[in-house]
Amino acid sequence: MPSTPLISVVVPCYDEEAVLERTHRRLTAVLRRLPDCAHEVVYVDDGSRDGTWRTLASVTGGDPAVRLLRLTRNFGHQQAILAGLRAAAGDAVVTMDADLQDPPELIPELVERWRAGWSVVSARRTSRAGESRFKVVTAHVYYRLLAALADQPVALDTGDFRLLDRSVVRLLAELPEGEPYLRGSVCWAGFPETSVAYERLPRPAGRSKYSLRKMADLSRRGLVSCSPAPARAPAVIGLTWLGGAAMTVAVRRHRLPLAAWTFGCEAVLLGLLGEYLRLVHRELRGRPPYVLLERHPPQPGGQPAGPVPAPDGTVRPLAVARGAQDRAAQ
Ligand code: UDP
Ligand code: MG
Predict the structure, then answer these.
(1) Do residues 92 and 124 both lie within one domain?
(2) In which residue ranges is the amino acid composition biased (Pro residues) (predicted)?
(3) Ligand with the closest atom to the CA of 13
(4) Which of 103, 221, 243, 260 yields a CA-CA distance of 20 to 30 A from 202?
C-alpha cells in the first residue's frame, strides 16, 4: 500500500439536482480530513432528466479532485456504478448513493478497515428510517431468500455502499457482464470482506429513483446472478411431483391420469433445459474459473502492475491473468 494512498469515491446520480450541493459539501469535508490520503470523486450522471449535470458542473466547478461522467441515457444504478469504477484511479474505491442516505462520515471507518488489510469493507444497515414499510419488508424477505438460495454466501443488509480494494475493482471492471449485479459479483469474487454498521437515514431531498419496476428488475438480476435455483426449479418440482405420483400408486393403489405423469415429465425436461441454459449463461458472463488472492513466493520479476495481455492477446484482469499463468505452469 502506498504511504499516501488515493481514495476514490464513485457516486451514481439520477435526477439528484435537489441534493447534490449538500452531498458534495459533506463528502469533500470528510475526504479533506482523511489522514495521509489523497482523494478524488467520480460523479456519474446516469442520463438524468433534470438539471443534475448542470448542478454537478456548478457545485464541483474547478475542483481538480472531481471527475464527471455523463451517460447517454438512463442505464440504471448498477451500470452507473460500473462506469465510475472503470474511471476511478484510487488504491481503494468507495461506492455510495448521491442522496446522503449513505452518510459520507462513515468513509474514514471504511478506510481504516481497508488499511487494516480488508479488501472489501461493506456498510451494513442496522435501520432504514424514512423508507416505506413495503420496501423495508420486501427487502428483508428478499435478501434472506437470496442468501438461502445463493451458491456463495451473500452479505445481508448491505446495498452498494462499500469500499473495494484496487485488486477487487480491477477484477470487477474487467468482467464483461452486460447486466452487472455488483454486490453479487463482489460475493462471487470472494475477497476478504468485513462490514461496518450504520443507520440508514431518510433522504434530505428528492424522491427515490427506484420505481417498482426497477426494484423488480434488480431482484430478478440478483436471483439469476447469484443462484442456480431459478433454472433448477422445474426439475425439482417435476421430480417431487413424479415421486409423489409414484407413492400414490404404490401405497394407495390409485391409478393416476396420464396428464399427471406428463406434467411431471415435462417439468423434469424443462429443468434439464434450464440446466443447459444456466451453463450457457455462465459461459456468456465470462467470469474466470477462479480468482487468485496472492502467491508465495512472488512471481519472478515482480508482480505486473496492471492488466496482463493473455497469450491470445486479450487483456484479462490481473488476478485472472495470474490464475491463467498458474494453470499454464501446472
Ligand atoms: N440511481 C441511478 N440510476 C437509476 C436509479 C438510481 O444512478 O436508474 C442512483 C440514485 O441517484 C442514487 C442511487 O442510485 O444515487 C440510489 O437510488 P435511490 O436513492 O433512488 O434508491 P433507494 O435508496 O430509494 O433504494
Ligand atoms: Mg436512496
Answers:
(1) yes
(2) 298-310
(3) 1
(4) 221
CB-CB contact of 308 with 315 (8 Å): yes
Ligand 1 contact, 210 CB (< 6 A): yes
pTM: predicted TM-score of the whole model, two decimal places: 0.85
Whole-number Å distance between alpha carbons of 39 and 115: 15
What domain range is 314 assigned to? 294-330
Report which ligand 1 atom has the smallest distance to the Cα of 74. Answer: 8
Set of cell numbers at residue 238: 417435476
Q: Is the pLDDT of residue 323 over 50?
A: no
Place of cell 428483508: 140
Write the pLDDT tens digit of every residue in 17-73: 999 999 999 999 999 999 999 999 999 999 999 999 999 999 998 899 999 999 999
Tally of structural domains, the chain: 3
Is 155 a pocket residue for ligand 1 (Cβ < 6 Å)? no
Alpha helices in 175-227 (DSSP H): 182-189, 212-226
Greatest distance between any 2 Cα atoms in the chain: 83
